[in-house]
Protein backbone atom coordinates (compact mmCIF):
# COMPACT_ATOMS: atom_id res chain seq x y z
CA UNK A 1 0.00 0.00 0.00
CA UNK A 2 2.76 2.41 0.90
CA UNK A 3 4.48 1.65 -2.43
CA UNK A 4 1.30 2.59 -4.35
CA UNK A 5 1.07 5.86 -2.47
CA UNK A 6 4.67 6.76 -3.40
CA UNK A 7 4.00 5.99 -7.06
CA UNK A 8 0.98 8.26 -7.00
CA UNK A 9 3.06 11.01 -5.44
CA UNK A 10 5.56 10.82 -8.33
CA UNK A 11 2.75 11.17 -10.90
CA UNK A 12 1.49 14.38 -9.31
CA UNK A 13 4.49 16.61 -8.53
CA UNK A 14 3.71 19.62 -6.37
CA UNK A 15 5.32 22.13 -8.79
CA UNK A 16 2.82 21.27 -11.51
CA UNK A 17 1.00 24.48 -10.51
CA UNK A 18 3.54 26.38 -12.58
CA UNK A 19 1.09 25.85 -15.46
CA UNK A 20 -0.81 28.81 -14.07
CA UNK A 21 1.30 31.57 -15.52
CA UNK A 22 0.79 34.89 -17.15
CA UNK A 23 1.00 35.11 -20.88
CA UNK A 24 4.37 36.51 -21.99
CA UNK A 25 2.52 38.49 -24.63
CA UNK A 26 0.34 40.42 -22.15
CA UNK A 27 3.14 42.82 -21.32
CA UNK A 28 3.70 43.30 -25.03
CA UNK A 29 0.04 44.06 -25.62
CA UNK A 30 0.36 47.44 -23.91
CA UNK A 31 3.01 48.52 -26.36
CA UNK A 32 1.83 46.49 -29.34
CA UNK A 33 1.08 48.03 -32.65
CA UNK A 34 -2.35 49.55 -33.08
CA UNK A 35 -2.73 47.47 -36.22
CA UNK A 36 -6.30 46.03 -36.07
CA UNK A 37 -5.20 42.54 -37.13
CA UNK A 38 -2.50 42.47 -34.44
CA UNK A 39 -4.95 43.71 -31.80
CA UNK A 40 -7.46 41.01 -32.79
CA UNK A 41 -4.80 38.28 -32.67
CA UNK A 42 -3.57 39.55 -29.29
CA UNK A 43 -7.11 39.42 -27.93
CA UNK A 44 -7.40 35.80 -29.12
CA UNK A 45 -4.11 34.92 -27.41
CA UNK A 46 -5.21 36.56 -24.16
CA UNK A 47 -8.51 34.69 -24.27
CA UNK A 48 -6.83 31.32 -24.95
CA UNK A 49 -4.31 31.99 -22.16
CA UNK A 50 -7.10 32.87 -19.72
CA UNK A 51 -8.94 29.65 -20.61
CA UNK A 52 -5.79 27.58 -20.08
CA UNK A 53 -5.05 29.33 -16.76
CA UNK A 54 -8.58 28.69 -15.52
CA UNK A 55 -8.49 25.05 -16.64
CA UNK A 56 -5.08 24.54 -15.05
CA UNK A 57 -6.59 25.41 -11.70
CA UNK A 58 -9.38 22.88 -12.29
CA UNK A 59 -6.81 20.28 -13.35
CA UNK A 60 -4.78 20.83 -10.21
CA UNK A 61 -7.94 20.46 -8.13
CA UNK A 62 -8.92 17.26 -10.02
CA UNK A 63 -5.46 15.79 -9.48
CA UNK A 64 -5.60 16.57 -5.79
CA UNK A 65 -9.04 14.98 -5.59
CA UNK A 66 -7.90 11.88 -7.54
CA UNK A 67 -4.85 11.55 -5.29
CA UNK A 68 -7.00 11.68 -2.20
CA UNK A 69 -9.55 9.24 -3.64
CA UNK A 70 -6.83 6.82 -4.67
CA UNK A 71 -5.25 6.97 -1.24
CA UNK A 72 -8.62 6.34 0.37
CA UNK A 73 -9.40 3.43 -1.96
CA UNK A 74 -6.04 1.88 -1.18
CA UNK A 75 -6.89 1.83 2.47
CA UNK A 76 -10.53 0.80 2.02
CA UNK A 77 -12.13 -2.42 0.83
CA UNK A 78 -15.40 -0.68 -0.12
CA UNK A 79 -16.43 -0.76 -3.77
CA UNK A 80 -17.76 2.78 -3.60
CA UNK A 81 -14.30 4.07 -2.70
CA UNK A 82 -12.79 2.10 -5.60
CA UNK A 83 -15.34 3.59 -8.01
CA UNK A 84 -14.75 7.07 -6.65
CA UNK A 85 -11.01 6.69 -7.20
CA UNK A 86 -11.58 5.44 -10.77
CA UNK A 87 -14.01 8.25 -11.50
CA UNK A 88 -11.55 10.80 -10.16
CA UNK A 89 -8.74 9.28 -12.27
CA UNK A 90 -10.94 9.46 -15.38
CA UNK A 91 -11.70 13.07 -14.56
CA UNK A 92 -8.00 13.83 -14.42
CA UNK A 93 -7.50 12.08 -17.77
CA UNK A 94 -10.27 14.16 -19.35
CA UNK A 95 -8.87 17.31 -17.78
CA UNK A 96 -5.40 16.49 -19.12
CA UNK A 97 -6.84 15.97 -22.59
CA UNK A 98 -8.66 19.30 -22.43
CA UNK A 99 -5.47 20.98 -21.16
CA UNK A 100 -3.60 19.61 -24.16
CA UNK A 101 -6.29 21.01 -26.47
CA UNK A 102 -6.14 24.39 -24.75
CA UNK A 103 -2.34 24.46 -24.95
CA UNK A 104 -2.52 23.60 -28.65
CA UNK A 105 -5.12 26.33 -29.16
CA UNK A 106 -2.93 28.82 -27.29
CA UNK A 107 0.10 27.82 -29.37
CA UNK A 108 -1.92 28.31 -32.56
CA UNK A 109 -3.15 31.72 -31.41
CA UNK A 110 0.41 32.75 -30.56
CA UNK A 111 1.54 31.59 -33.98
CA UNK A 112 -1.24 33.66 -35.56
CA UNK A 113 -0.17 36.65 -33.46
CA UNK A 114 3.43 36.27 -34.62
CA UNK A 115 2.28 36.14 -38.24
CA UNK A 116 0.08 39.21 -37.83
CA UNK A 117 2.93 41.11 -36.18
CA UNK A 118 5.23 40.20 -39.06
CA UNK A 119 2.64 41.33 -41.60
CA UNK A 120 1.96 44.51 -39.59
CA UNK A 121 5.68 45.26 -39.46
CA UNK A 122 5.86 44.80 -43.23
CA UNK A 123 2.87 47.10 -43.70
CA UNK A 124 4.40 49.66 -41.35
CA UNK A 125 7.69 49.49 -43.25
CA UNK A 126 5.86 49.93 -46.54
CA UNK A 127 3.87 52.87 -45.15
CA UNK A 128 7.05 54.45 -43.77
CA UNK A 129 8.75 53.97 -47.14
CA UNK A 130 5.83 55.58 -48.95
CA UNK A 131 5.88 58.46 -46.46
CA UNK A 132 9.61 58.95 -47.03
CA UNK A 133 9.13 58.85 -50.80
CA UNK A 134 6.30 61.38 -50.57
CA UNK A 135 8.36 63.59 -48.25
CA UNK A 136 11.30 63.39 -50.65
CA UNK A 137 9.03 64.17 -53.59
CA UNK A 138 7.62 67.22 -51.82
CA UNK A 139 11.10 68.36 -50.75
CA UNK A 140 12.49 67.94 -54.27
CA UNK A 141 9.46 69.69 -55.72
CA UNK A 142 9.98 72.63 -53.39
CA UNK A 143 13.68 72.65 -54.17
CA UNK A 144 12.92 72.48 -57.89
CA UNK A 145 10.66 75.50 -57.57
CA UNK A 146 13.37 77.35 -55.66
CA UNK A 147 16.01 76.32 -58.20
CA UNK A 148 13.68 77.39 -60.99
CA UNK A 149 13.31 80.84 -59.47
CA UNK A 150 17.09 81.08 -59.09
CA UNK A 151 17.58 79.92 -62.66
CA UNK A 152 15.03 82.46 -63.88
CA UNK A 153 16.80 85.22 -61.97
CA UNK A 154 20.20 84.14 -63.29
CA UNK A 155 18.83 83.87 -66.83
CA UNK A 156 17.19 87.27 -66.50
CA UNK A 157 20.46 88.87 -65.40
CA UNK A 158 22.36 87.14 -68.19
CA UNK A 159 19.71 87.99 -70.78
CA UNK A 160 19.54 91.63 -69.71
CA UNK A 161 23.32 91.90 -69.81
CA UNK A 162 23.44 90.38 -73.30
CA UNK A 163 20.54 92.57 -74.43
CA UNK A 164 22.17 95.68 -73.01
CA UNK A 165 25.39 94.80 -74.85
CA UNK A 166 23.50 94.21 -78.09
CA UNK A 167 21.54 97.45 -77.67
CA UNK A 168 24.77 99.33 -76.92
CA UNK A 169 26.27 97.99 -80.13
CA UNK A 170 23.17 99.03 -82.06
CA UNK A 171 23.27 102.50 -80.51
CA UNK A 172 26.98 102.78 -81.29
CA UNK A 173 26.44 101.72 -84.90
CA UNK A 174 23.51 104.11 -85.26
CA UNK A 175 25.57 106.86 -83.68
CA UNK A 176 28.40 106.28 -86.15
CA UNK A 177 25.95 106.26 -89.04
CA UNK A 178 24.16 109.40 -87.91
CA UNK A 179 27.48 111.11 -87.16
CA UNK A 180 28.72 110.30 -90.64
CA UNK A 181 25.45 111.54 -92.10
CA UNK A 182 25.66 114.73 -90.03
CA UNK A 183 29.26 115.30 -91.13
CA UNK A 184 28.28 114.78 -94.76
CA UNK A 185 25.40 117.22 -94.37
CA UNK A 186 27.71 119.69 -92.66
CA UNK A 187 30.25 119.32 -95.45
CA UNK A 188 27.55 119.80 -98.06
CA UNK A 189 26.19 122.82 -96.22
CA UNK A 190 29.67 124.34 -95.97
CA UNK A 191 30.23 123.77 -99.68
CA UNK A 192 26.91 125.34 -100.49
CA UNK A 193 27.69 128.21 -98.16
CA UNK A 194 31.03 128.73 -99.88
CA UNK A 195 29.25 128.71 -103.24
CA UNK A 196 26.78 131.30 -102.02
CA UNK A 197 29.57 133.40 -100.58
CA UNK A 198 31.49 133.08 -103.86
CA UNK A 199 28.47 134.25 -105.84
CA UNK A 200 27.86 137.09 -103.43
CA UNK A 201 31.49 138.11 -103.69
CA UNK A 202 31.27 138.03 -107.48
CA UNK A 203 28.14 140.21 -107.43
CA UNK A 204 29.77 142.64 -105.04
CA UNK A 205 32.83 142.84 -107.31
CA UNK A 206 30.66 143.43 -110.34
CA UNK A 207 28.82 146.23 -108.57
CA UNK A 208 32.12 147.78 -107.61
CA UNK A 209 33.22 147.88 -111.29
CA UNK A 210 29.96 149.43 -112.50
CA UNK A 211 29.94 152.27 -109.96
CA UNK A 212 32.97 154.30 -111.37
CA UNK A 213 31.62 154.11 -114.91
CA UNK A 214 28.30 155.53 -113.82
CA UNK A 215 30.02 158.35 -112.00
CA UNK A 216 32.03 159.25 -115.14
CA UNK A 217 28.88 159.33 -117.26
CA UNK A 218 27.10 161.50 -114.74
CA UNK A 219 30.04 163.87 -114.65
CA UNK A 220 30.06 164.24 -118.42
CA UNK A 221 26.37 165.00 -118.48
CA UNK A 222 26.59 167.64 -115.73
CA UNK A 223 29.74 169.52 -117.02
CA UNK A 224 28.97 173.14 -118.41
CA UNK A 225 29.76 174.15 -122.06
CA UNK A 226 32.95 176.09 -122.90
CA UNK A 227 32.65 179.82 -123.91
CA UNK A 228 33.58 180.97 -127.43
UniProtKB/TrEMBL annotation:
Residues 38-139 form a coiled coil. It comes from the Bacteria. Residues 1-24, 204-228 have a biased composition (Basic residues). Residues 1-37, 173-228 are annotated as: Disordered. Keywords: Coiled coil. Residues 183-203 have a biased composition (Basic and acidic residues). This is Histone. It comes from Gilvimarinus xylanilyticus. The lineage of its organism: Bacteria, Pseudomonadati, Pseudomonadota, Gammaproteobacteria, Cellvibrionales.
Amino acid sequence: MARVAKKTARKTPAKRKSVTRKSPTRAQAATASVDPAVAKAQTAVDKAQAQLDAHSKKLDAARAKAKAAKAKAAKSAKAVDKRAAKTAANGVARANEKARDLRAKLAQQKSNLAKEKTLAAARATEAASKAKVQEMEERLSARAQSDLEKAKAAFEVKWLKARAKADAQKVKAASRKLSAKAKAAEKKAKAKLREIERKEAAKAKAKTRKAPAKRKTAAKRGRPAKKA
